[in-house]
Amino acid sequence: MESNHEIKSRNEINFNFDKILSVFGDEKMDLVQPNNSIFHGTVKEHLERLKSEKKTYSDITSFNKNGEKLHWVHFVQEGGGTLGISLVGYAFVLEFLGIRFLRLAGTSAGAINTLFLAAIGEKDDPKTPELFDMLTNPSRFDMRSFIDAKNTIVRKMILSLSKGYGLIKNILLRYVFLLFAIIFPLPLLSHIGKVWFIVYGSLLGIFVLASLYMVYLFYRFNQYNFGINPGTKFQEFLEKELESFGVESQEHLDEKAKGKTQFQFNPESTYRSNVSQNLEPDATADLVQEVQVDQPVENLDEVKKKSKLTLYLNVENKLEGNQLPDEYGEIAWDYSFVATDINNETKVVLPLDGRLYFENQKNINPSNYVRASMAIPIFFEPQFFPEKPTKNHPGKNIPEQLKELWEEFKAKPKYKVRDKGILIDGGSLSNFPINLFHNPKISGKEPRMPIMGVRIMDEDPEEKIPITKKMSFTGFAGKIINTLRNNEDNSFLAINPFYKKYSIADISAYETKVNWLNFGLSEAEQKALFLVGIKAALTYLENFDWETYKKERSKI
425 an active-site residue? Predict the structure, then answer.
């Protein structure tokens, strides 16, 4: 495919943290230390102090081109609408302290950040400096443009969410008031005199026109597959940015996510995780290891005694036919975006489940996967797989031979598989897919690297709602939806409380008072979100202890 945009050279991508530090470095922040004492200082002081401590975050490490030690982890990010900007602030702290990401997963806004963390530069490069450049450059990132509904009034109503639900609520209240007035008092008053008759006729005409306009909007809503915004501008933004980083297909992103990093492994660790079951066999077939010894080894103890134990990607196994014990399995890599197929009634993990929709999956632009993951119901049109139907063209359907795979991977008989997948925001079923990284095979053994996850809190968990307060209908409906969409993630964390205690950080996005559907964010609001992400990461890493993590994980 011929490129419409120039691919950035390595020199054109920003890998330097200076710009972020110039904006946020002097921000004052109090952190609670492990001994419950308060550490006062600026963001820059906290970062430099943590960096000087040279903490260990993983047993899988490498060295970058400058000789700096990097620690490799698995990283999962929750969705949260426009509050997702805070995720970039969170990831910045991790990268500044030398943490890099082997496996990545996210839903909705978390999927967007996951995509760029996988696509920018090389695998061991820091990505957040370039991401910050993108977010602060209106010519690259114009959030308002993502509201691409064709109707001007609808666009203004959506952008009014920056001030809460006031405008939409006022329009609905006026409509209801007008309806009430037409039904009851005005018909009676119209018989009193000519003036009231004219008033009644005028208001009746306004009501009829408003009703017809609402019917028209609903018709358009139906025409756009029950999504207010087509989401075209957002996908074009993704495609343009990905192309500038040399990514136009899943195959390109796979190469980026796989990388060419030379890893080191701490031989004192008792276990190295096996490759997760959700990886394709060919994704890790060539990930092998090299032990720098002259003679074949017979057991794990002998391996540990060797002064050099270095693991490589894409090198030949030099053990002359001997296999390392299971504890020394391959280093895994992958990236996952979670969506929901409402037509086939199932959670979808992409690109893994792309095999259920596409014959030539490697050629699919990964922007399609992320566009599916962030398709907030009603707000955005759903994403159709393998192809969206139009008035004049039905689009491609799921091939019959692929429908046979559904029974194997989704326990869905072929005859029940719909011709198309209709995908919406993955947060409707799993907004925080940390379960993708859980490996039951390491039960009773120490992990080789941690799983780090971050959630976005849009409500103050300590805010107490009086039991006597009457619940509104919208509040009632909202609680039902939240219960359903959080059920899978909460159930997993209830069974595995270890992750909540040792792996997960919460971003207090509610402190910014920004609405999660506010696509008209001011510069100050974006900075506030970035800053709460920084604070959450600093707090988490301040209290993180790798040895404790390994010990507690081995008890599961």
Answer: yes
